[in-house]
Records
---
Amino acid sequence: MLWGMRKRCPSCGQSHIFHTYLKQADSCDICDAQFGEIRTDDIAPYFTILIVGHIIAPLLFYVETTYAPPVWIHSAIWPVLTVILSLWFLPRVKGTAIAIMWHLGLRGDEKH
Ligand SMILES: [Zn+2]
């Protein structure tokens, strides 16, 4: 799971799990672990929104209640910070989801 968070192979932690920003490699270059067909679907954006929302919202309320800056400062800070944090968290959350699914033997196309 920690290797997935660091965007590393869930088996050996040596090679990168993604070959582009969010497109995972088919397998590990080092240990040949297969994770290319694991589909995480919406779970990465879902948890990214959850995490970033729980960072931004308290910060926003803290800054507002402590400093009460003008609205234009809020408008300048929070959307930019939200985008930056989302882009930073998204591949890490997806890497974590891939690692968990790989360890559980799930591929994301299971039928109920
Ligand atoms: Zn590996």
Note: The chain has one domain: 2-104.
---
Amino acid sequence: MLREWPNCYFCQLCLRNLETGLHLFTVCPVSCIIWASIRAWSHCPGMNPANWETASDLSTWFFNLVGNSTSTAEAKGARSLAILVAWSIWCERNRRIFYDAVKTTTRIVEEIKENARLWVSAGAKHLATIVDRPSSE
Ligand SMILES: [Zn+2]
């Protein structure tokens, strides 16, 4: 359907590569800075882009990122955090396309941390196992 949205062939985060889902979330240097910063902050070693294997699709990448274990609190927390980071990257991509506005990676990472703490405060007990506690506690 034609919606007359701008067609941006290039990734709006790095402006160096054609935009694909795999590039945006797994290879883009801007996204990798965000993932690495979250890795340094959280207790989730799988979020280190330097250790990621090349994946052929997003679902393979996601399961490599958070592990296939479904039973541990850490695995459940890692999945929540990975979804939050991916969502934040997606929102930044959209902000740049539709609002012609840019946040720094530092600001994006700070907002991810704030949102993770908010989720923990709201009862995300598994996420609490891999991120720090809100400063008010
Ligand atoms: Zn990119």
Note: The helical segments are 21-27, 29-41, 58-66, 73-98, 105-121, 125-128.
---
Amino acid sequence: MARSPSGAALVTLRTGTLDDVPALVALGHAVVPPTYGPIDAAYARRMLDEWWVPARFEASLAVNAHLVAEVGAEVVAMASFGRLSRSHRDFPHVTGDREVMWKLYVHPDHQGIGIGSRLLSEVEAMVEGDQLWLEVVDGNEQAFAFYRAHGFAEVERVTDREWPDDVWLRKPLAKGL
Ligand SMILES: CC(C)(COP(=O)(O)OP(=O)(O)OC[C@H]1O[C@@H](n2cnc3c(N)ncnc32)[C@H](O)[C@@H]1OP(=O)(O)O)[C@@H](O)C(=O)NCCC(=O)NCCS
């Protein structure tokens, strides 16, 4: 994997806006195929077509918080999070509400230098409650290892006959301590 010559120190984090939508779509095209293609190429295609298109980001920016990481003027990573009750998806297995990190994606050329960890820390500091939830696709071992190392544990698994399982992870946050 290529490493950024600039290092994580030159990465800046800021709030994402509608102006970032083209860069976010481009980021998806760089990171989704190598992430999900080896698990299930059709799933990778579906992810791009469904979740990395301008209309989805415009809808998400209206209800979720977005962070982008930049090196110079290039968006190299992003995270988004918000309440499950405000999602456009249905979650029949969930009762009550959850704070969910919906996306955490780092461009392949910039992975492994601490950007994902920085974004995750920022998200954890910004959520209101004392738990953070997220979904990982069964087979995304790099992400599982990353999240386990950052204190997340598997809670439940949503099985779909057609696609890989969604595995829900949760981390207790030490808010107010
Ligand atoms: C999972 C992901 C968000 C992690 O972000 P990242 O910036 O690569 O992660 P970091 O550099 O902050 O931390 C990676 C950890 O793995 C280690 N690591 C070592 N070699 C690595 C490598 N080649 N690539 C990535 N991480 C490596 C790092 O040292 C670090 O461990 P540490 O915290 O104990 O030091 C990122 O790899 C990614 O975007 N993956 C593809 C998309 C994805 O799966 N997103 C999650 C969807 S649920």
Note: Helices lie at 21-36, 41-51, 54-63, 115-126, 141-149.
